[in-house]
Amino acid sequence: MRRRAAVLAGPGPGSVPLVRYAVPGECVAVLPAGSGDAPVVAAGVGVLLRRGNLFGHLTVAQNVLLAGRLSTRRAPENAADLLELAGLAARGDAYPDTLSALEGARAGVAVALAGAPEVVFADEPAGELDGLAALELMDLLCAVARRGTAVVVATRDPDIAAAAHRIVRVA
Question: Is the pTM for the entire model greater than 0.85?
Answer without folding.
Answer: no
